[in-house]
Amino acid sequence: MSTSTTPGRPPYAGTRAPRLTESAAFTAHMARGWGAPDVVVPVTPGAPEAAADHRRRLSERLRGHDVVVAAGRAPLRNGDAMYGFRADSDFVWLTGTQAEDGVLVLRAAGDGHDATLYLPPPARPGGSAFFGDAAYGELWVGPSPDLAAWAEAFGIAVEPVSALDAVLDRLDGALASPSVPGDLVRRYDLKPAEDLARALSDLRMVKDDWEVAQLREAIDHTVTGFDAVAREVPRAVDGLGERWLQGTFDRHARTYGNGPGYSTIVGSGPHAPTLHWVRCDGPVLPDLPLLLDMGVEANTLYTADVTRTIPPSGTFSPVQRQVHDLVEAAHRAGMAQVRPGVEYLDFHFAAMEVIATGLHDWGLLDVSVDEALSPGGQQHRRWLVCGIGHHLGLDVHDCAHSDYDTYQGAALVPGVVMTVEPGLYFHAHDETVPPELRGVGVRLEDDLLVTADGAEVLSGALPIDAAGVEEWTKERIGG
């Protein structure tokens, strides 16, 4: 085949020359002359010990069952571009690691389990994957530790993922977590086990001291993130809008943690009543409440979840303050129910009673408070359609695979971390409310740790009363 001689084009243009990875000379050249880079295993102090204890707790619950849990891999975004990788939460809880395509196998042995972690080995100089594999080649993704270093750092047996097939082939009906790829489940007759997912959710519901420390770090960085966002409100009002504030927090979260723990919500005025307003493509209106629902995810993947509603001008209007005061009263009533021995849903019912009573006093309910609160009523929930709290941990809505009785019917115990987040959401097109309420949305959300004798508000550095919120906002916007 002749080469192109078109002026201005290189001599190889238009040819079908072999790919570089198929060139023996190029491969040999790329294999030579590389020094040994410094590679540090990404391990947080205490994580290996915490993960080992988590495996022990799971082993006690699932004696006699083999278990397979996978880290997962980054999903396709578009074309050949991938989303950023975020490891499966159960895998992280059991291993302390975040290695993409990692698989943990717990083989039943006596009264416990033998744990082996299967990881992709680094693609280093000497093979074509070093420069030809965009997923693992170190020329693409940077140097990574070898498997022996992983094993030493985390105190667990580590084998190459290429050995996984032979291991799975010897298992008989192992329980597979939802993160295990479907082709592996089908090929080796693994059992997609609701019991496993439920067991992991139940166990993750009570945090140990190490986990609480990770959540404290995430929440502390979230509080400073609120500070950073509030200081940018004047620029947002001047034209940069909601997305500037969303980006401000997301940058803060990536600087002081792994990133945001969920899609950051910044809702101004008529966007504030939309529960998950993550588009953030509107202006920031100076005279309407600005709802900020934000959480930093720590490098260990434990996340905060905090909401405040602030006045961009520094001062709530009388109507806005009236709404904020009612939400605050519901928030305090809900938090007062968070303590050992109290049923989980008591905080929800306490807050809802305050909301229903307030709405009735305002003339918005055409039924009594008792009827509204009855199972056959619920009219007050037009303006608070969601629940007002959830467990918090590696997932923002943590422990979601637990059954109803365990999640919502059990009594609270020390070590539970949960949110309380009542709100009122009056949409701009809701013709059942007076015009002055339309487009007003207010939510207050704090993260609480159940202690031996009550609860600690981990996000308590941020004010929740209207006067305190106004003062806090003015100090940051310069008003």
From TrEMBL:
EC? Answer: 3.4.11.9
Q: Which UniProt keywords apply?
A: Aminopeptidase, Hydrolase, Manganese, Metal-binding, Protease
Give residue ranges for domain Aminopeptidase P N-terminal.
Answer: 49-189
Q: Which InterPro entries match?
A: Aminopep_P_N, Creatin/AminoP/Spt16_N, Creatinase/aminopeptidase-like, Pept_M24, X-Pro_dipept-like
Q: Has keyword Lipoprotein?
A: no
* Record's keyword annotation contains Ubl conjugation: no
Q: Which Pfam families does the record associate with it?
A: AMP_N, Peptidase_M24
Catalysed reaction(s) here are: Release of any N-terminal amino acid, including proline, that is linked to proline, even from a dipeptide or tripeptide
Q: Which cofactor does it need?
A: Mn(2+)
A single GO BP term for this record reads: proteolysis
UniProt GO molecular function: manganese ion binding; metalloaminopeptidase activity
GO CC aspect terms: cytosol
Family stated for the protein in its record? Belongs to the peptidase M24B family.
Name-wise, this protein is Xaa-Pro aminopeptidase
